[in-house]
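Example 365, ligand pyridoxal-5'-phosphate.
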Amino acid sequence: MERYYFDHNATTPVAPAVIDAMLPVFRDGFGNASSIHQPGQQAKQALEKARRQTAAFLNCSPKEIVFTSGGTEADNLAILGVPRGHIVTTNIEHPAILGACRDLDVTYLEADSHGVIQPRTLRDALRPSTVLVSVMHANNELGTVQDIEAFAAIAHDNGALFHSDGVQAAGKISINLKNIDLYSISGHKLNAPKGIGALYVRQGVELHPRQFGGRHESGRRAGTENVPGAVALGAACEMPRENVGMLTQRLETGILAKVPQTIVNGANAPRGPNTTNIRFAGIEGEAMVIALDLRGFAVSSGAACSSGAVEPSHVLTAIGLTREEAKASIRFSLGMGNTIEQVDALIDAVVASAAHLRRLSPVYA
Ligand code: PLP
């Protein structure tokens, strides 16, 4: 059976060009980038080239790139590495932000029913003690895009720093870091492997390391650098990217037209080109994920298994969906390798699976 992947917001396949760039470093470039001998200096050169490539992608200076182990660490470092004080963030952030904020003095801005955080709500949340505002760029579940420049301007008016979690934006929408102080990206959402990410730290921003060790990454992130990972991220940053917007649109329109009682969550918000999150009345999302998997399609549901119980996504309940509606939602996220033929085959599989599951559903029958 052919297998088609429509879960690129969970993770992406590593691109062949990225593997080609990374393999020689794995094979021969084992040196420690902090060593002064030849193998060490070769590793250092590879690391610095990757830093330049990542910086070029974000249109910033290489000095402003701190390599991390991924998006989670970049987010944690942004929240916990700035001087302590009041923080403003949102109720639709990734757990990497929400968890880092848990024991801090935090105000949460609330998304509206479209999945948009209105920048004006920030004004009321700011205090003289606010040190940082963190608003994600593109949401991982809905694909909704926030006006981060507007948030940054308001934060700066109040003397606060501005961070954005750009893990789901990088490679999908354009990024302008001109007024942004901190920005997180993750390799494995960009066709590089897992275990590498970066935090952009604007020159002059005071950032303290969160883990203790050597003075790697200019004293901002301790730990021997993952050189093959960084090389992979650098290569992924240089890759030309196809726009999958047309395919996502075709998928969304096809499902809405052919499956009755379907609604797009966050339909009226500005959205990135690769994500559509669709609610299927009367269907358990997990059952749909399994039904589609059996037909060869990988998608994701609006629920996550936490401690053995299937819990509805906090993002979907934050925009006003009931637990049942959230659990009846499926996220389709497109990326490298998806084709029109795959999209059309997925629409057919969704039509068949929805009809089958509804026949079995006590709610719907
Ligand atoms: N932020 C967002 C918006 C994400 O979607 C993810 C991963 O799903 C992360 C942060 C965490 O990134 P990583 O998996 O690289 O730790």
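Summary: The pocket of pyridoxal-5'-phosphate is lined by residues 70-72, 75, 94, 96, 136, 140, 165, 167-168, 186, 188, 197 (CB under 6 Å).
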